[in-house]
Design brief:
This protein is of the alpha/beta class. The chain has five helices and twelve strands. It has one domain: Peptidoglycan recognition protein-like (Lysozyme-like). A hairpin with a 5-residue loop joins strand 6 and strand 7. Helix 3 packs across helix 5.
Length: 191
């Protein structure tokens, strides 16, 4: 949804779903470990094919749909990949939810945060459509801040101090959301 139209978001605690956003539920998730709550928000950047925006490809990746190699050679490299995120924020600010926040999305991979490994167990993954070398859009920052505020309101286990990039929890392996991501802008909007 465009930033100018981004309402105050609310998360339904029993279902873990954001009310008023598009739901495209992924089969790529499982249960969090017993007693695990969201304690970390991880910001990612993604584009499919690499460097291209729009199209159905991110949704297909997160839902196990086909990525035809005749569309782009990169799709052959990631065929069979089983990944997801809790939410995607498109370039225009639209939020799409793939996994309920009550469940474990498969977004972080091998990861560590403050000495704790397996970040998928205790984190929320938010993907922004973008690349490491392209600035993100104002609408994306507005939607990300609205979603983060809703998460902070819903889960006492989360804190504005526990927001990290994929590169922070998987250094040397991941670089997203990249140097063009404006952390100060996001933190100011969340406040």
């Amino acid at each position: 949804m465009p930033a100018a139209l981004t309402p105050t978001l609310r998360i339904d605690l029993p279902t873990g779903l954001v009310q008023g956003v598009r739901q495209v539920l992924s089969p790529h998730f499982d249960a969090r470990p017993p007693g695990a709550q969201p304690e970390l928000i991880v910001i990612h950047g993604i584009s499919l094919p690499p460097g291209q925006f729009g199209g159905p490809w991110i949704e297909r990746l997160f839902t196990g749909g086909p990525l035809p190699p005749d569309v782009h050679p990169f799709f052959a490299e990631i065929a069979g990949l089983r990944v997801s995120a809790h939410a995607l924020i498109r370039r225009d600010g639209e939020i799409v939810q793939f996994v309920p926040f009550t469940e474990r999305a498969w977004h972080a991979g091998q990861s560590e945060y403050c000495g704790r490994v397996a970040c998928n167990d205790f984190s929320v993954g938010i993907e922004l459509e973008g690349t490491d070398d392209t600035p993100y859009e104002a609408a994306q920052y507005a939607s990300a801040a609205a979603l983060i505020r809703a998460l902070l309101d819903a889960y006492a286990s989360l804190s504005p101090d526990r927001i990290a990039g994929h590169s922070d929890i998987a250094p040397g392996r991941k670089t997203d959301p990249g140097p063009h991501f404006d952390w100060l802008r996001l933190r100011a909007l969340v406040r």
